[in-house]
Design goal:
The strands form five sheets. This protein has a three-stranded parallel sheet with strand order 1-2-3, covered by helices on one side. A three-stranded antiparallel sheet has the order 4-5-8. Strands 6-7 form a two-stranded antiparallel ribbon. The N and C termini lie far apart (83 Å). The chain is built from 20 helices and twelve strands. The protein folds into four domains: 142 residues, Rossmann fold; 151 residues, HUPs (Rossmann fold, 3-Layer(aba) Sandwich), CATH 3.40.50.620; 52 residues; 88 residues, Arc Repressor Mutant, subunit A (Orthogonal Bundle), CATH 1.10.10. It has 465 residues and is mainly alpha-helical. It holds the Pfam family tRNA-synt_1c. GO terms for molecular function: glutamate-tRNA ligase activity. Its EC number is 6.1.1.17.
Length: 465
């Protein structure tokens, strides 16, 4: 019987949610959600010196903004330390582990000598096969009694069959001499206890998989399906870092990239479904599979991300855009955006915007208060002649039906009466309504602003000194 799919995301709470970690979480989320499975969250907070509540909250916030919900409560790895230690002792009793009294000083002295002589620094503890009668008093570590011959094989769904010579793997420490479990043991025990069926993570953990597989085998536990995904690199092909731009999910939120766009982009980053670039969450859940993940590192391309962001803005529901704008303003410390004013302008501006700040800028005409102050370029369109025509236009607009066709007719008739093209009259109208030269259609702006506000702005511009 096939086990229900269970995936997990297991970040260390030592800082913000990195974009690479976000993609790992997304892949796990998609794989589980697309198969009716469970997606779990574990905070690997065993490094108590570096783990902080603020960093843990940053992970929660980052996943929440990205729209990745997890099942059940988040698990604290540190809280399971007693269980981890119990497994180490169980392995000891079963003969799959042994006590080691080697001190850190002895181990480091061995490695320094090995480096100096050009030998392998792989430490082989003399306590592995020592007579128990020779055991000294004092604290000891518990080490895995790993196989010395043969190979450990990882059948990886992304990397393929990967083999490790057992004589190149040491007897790793499971329980330190102070009684605390190591990360390698804790991960395996937690994944087993949480019922994780698929371990999908960065390929920087591939070597860890060989060592962790030995723990699974020693305990007689079924290994999970392994899938080690390539890391994300910058556009120059080097490991992603601050020099390439934003590395944290929160930074992309502050840039005004809507969450659906970042989900789409990260899904496509290192995974493919034919030539599809733009797709919905539902399509991603239906299509995503481990077989579509490439072996080569993915390259972060901000221009592609912004282009995809624009495509998502163009199809997002107005209410979703308003919610995203409110979140963006709060994150960046801006004053709240007036949703009542912005809402009617959204259909006019969302097709031309790639980010939320661009959308807000395009909708500035709807958010502005009178009197509208034209910028330098717009001011040039408001010469004496143009102001006179605007004064003449006001009574015609006051009596017009407030529809696009009627408004175009009124403005067109007046332009024709003055022997000028519609474009010549549109420029001062843009200046009067928006205070700038690059705007949506003047007639669309009139419809959004309404009769009273439109007439007031035109009157202000016509009478300004």
């Amino acid at each position: 019987m096939t086990r229900p799919v269970v995936t997990r995301f297991a970040p260390s709470p030592t800082g913000y949610l990195h974009i690479g970690g976000a993609r790992t979480a997304l892949f796990n989320w998609l794989y589980a959600r697309g198969r009716g499975g469970r997606f779990l969250l574990r905070i690997e907070d065993t490094d108590r010196a570096r783990s902080t509540e603020a960093a843990t909250q940053a992970i929660f916030d980052g996943l929440g903004w990205l729209g990745l919900d997890w099942d059940g409560e988040a698990v604290s790895q540190a809280a399971n330390a007693d269980r981890h230690a119990a497994v180490a002792r169980e392995m000891l009793e079963a003969g799959h582990a042994y006590r080691c009294w080697a001190s850190q000083e002895e181990i480091e002295a061995f490695r320094e000598a090995a480096r100096a002589e050009g030998r392998s620094t792989l430490y082989l503890s003399p306590w592995r096969d020592a007579d128990p009668a020779d055991a000294p008093d004092g604290p000891f570590a518990i080490r895995l009694k790993a196989p010395r011959d043969g190979e450990t094989v990882i059948e990886d769904r992304v990397q393929g069959r990967v083999t490790f010579r057992n004589d190149q793997l040491d007897d790793m420490v499971l329980l330190r001499s102070d009684g605390t479990p190591t990360y390698m043991l804790a991960v395996v025990v937690d994944d087993h206890d949480m019922g994780v069926t698929h371990v999908i993570r960065g390929d920087d953990h591939l070597n860890n998989a060989a060592r962790q597989a030995q723990i699974y085998d020693a305990m007689g536990w079924e290994q999970p399906v392994w899938a080690h995904i390539p890391l994300i690199h910058g556009a120059d092909g080097k490991k992603l870092s601050k020099r390439h731009g934003a590395t944290g999910v929160g930074e992309y939120a502050e840039m005004g990239i809507p969450a659906p766009a970042l989900r789409n982009y990260l899904t496509r980053l290192g995974w493919s479904h034919g030539d599809d670039e733009f797709f919905t969450d539902a399509q991603a859940r239906d299509w995503f599979d481990l077989d579509g993940i490439g072996k080569a590192p993915a390259r972060l391309d901000l221009k592609k991300l912004e282009n995809l962001s624009g495509q998502h803005l163009s199809v997002m529901a107005d209410d979703a855009i308003l919610a995203a704008v409110a979140d963006w303003a709060a994150r960046t410390g801006r004053a709240p955006i007036d949703a009542a004013r912005l809402r009617p302008a959204i259909p006019l501006v969302k097709d031309a915007a790639r980010t939320l700040p661009q959308l807000i800028d395009r909708a500035a005409f709807a958010l502005a208060d009178r009197p509208i102050r034209p910028d330098e370029k717009a001011e040039k369109a408001l010469d004496a002649v143009s102001r006179g025509i605007l004064s003449e236009l006001t009574p015609h607009l006051r009596n017009a039906s407030w529809t696009r066709d009627a408004l175009e007719g009124v403005v067109g008739d007046l332009a024709q009466a003055h022997g000028i093209g519609l474009g010549k009259l549109a420029a001062p109208l843009r200046a009067a309504l928006a205070g700038r030269t690059a705007t949506p259609s003047v007639f669309d702006m009139m419809l959004v602003l309404g009769r009273d506000e439109t007439l007031a702005r035109i009157s202000d511009a016509a009478t300004a000194a």
